[in-house]
Amino acid sequence: MSSQPKVLLVVNPISGDVNKDVIFERVIGKSEAEGCDLRIYSTTGDDDQQTIREMVENIRPERVLVAGGDGTISMVAQALHGTDAILCIIPAGSANGLSADFGLSGSIDQALEVAFEGEVSAIDAVSINGEISLHLADIGLNALLVKNYEDSDTRGKLGYAREMLRTLSEHENFDVKITTDDEVLETEVLIVIIANAKKYGTGVSINPIGDMCDGFFELVIAKKLDFIETAKILAGSTDFNPEIMKVISVEKATIECVQKSAHFQIDGEYKGLVEKLEAVILKGYVKVAIPVGLREGE
Ligand SMILES: Nc1ncnc2c1ncn2[C@@H]1O[C@H](COP(=O)(O)OP(=O)(O)OP(=O)(O)O)[C@@H](O)[C@H]1O
């Protein structure tokens, strides 16, 4: 039996606009240099989570490197939950919001250095109506943008800008009742974000106190903004103005849409209209490799 440390590389062949050949080459080279036994799985879009779970149980890799977007990273995190394998992110999606929150700039060199020499931290997840969010979920304006972008046939910055304008003209504020252990809040909102992390993939910091390892998530409750400010936020050119947003740190919360249902997205994936969300923190959900010193620097 080989005593070499085992590494599994999971690659999503269709994510982002990234040449996966370069990733294959670099990971194979690094694994050889580190004396690791490398296995590779290319996702198919069908039952990947189950297949990866079975591979992890059979192979027992120390590390699972994931080259894909947020959707792939989240899927692999769910496959690794409850195992000792360390999730190592190689940013290769179109938005890469999760990677940005882990201090990964997008270069393969940095991602591989973190994967093999980084610190290991157990990050929380948020269970929302039974689904897993590692990053940011929301109801309202941004979820409608995610829907419009998914429905549109264009991609890239131009397509995003077009869908942003459409979203701004379609969106209407809505009323919510938010219940936490400490308070009940009834208010009109533009958006309610359930934030395990700090930033959207555009780089907009919406949750400055967000820490994926602290055992809490934040509710970021934003009220009506004017058109220009909203456009700037959606375009990623400004952060939320603290005067018009409320941030609450909680372990669990219920959000009810009072008069009409609201659009809902988890980690960049549109989930449909919802009337009620039950969110609860799942502490230390999965082990992740992060840059040395990242958490101390927060
Ligand atoms: N071989 C494949 N063929 C078609 N779809 C696939 C394949 N492998 C995975 N998928 C699909 O890819 C989606 C996940 O993509 P992912 O989020 O990783 O990338 P992205 O959308 O380009 O990036 P980002 O989330 O950063 O915008 C899932 O819906 C999954 O079903």
From TrEMBL:
Keywords: ATP-binding, Kinase, Nucleotide-binding, Transferase. PROSITE patterns: DAGK (PS50146). The keyword Isomerase does not apply. Pfam families: DAGK_cat, YegS_C. Residues 2-132 form the DAGKc domain. The keyword Iron-sulfur does not apply. SMART domains: DAGKc. This is DAGKc domain-containing protein. It comes from Dyadobacter endophyticus.
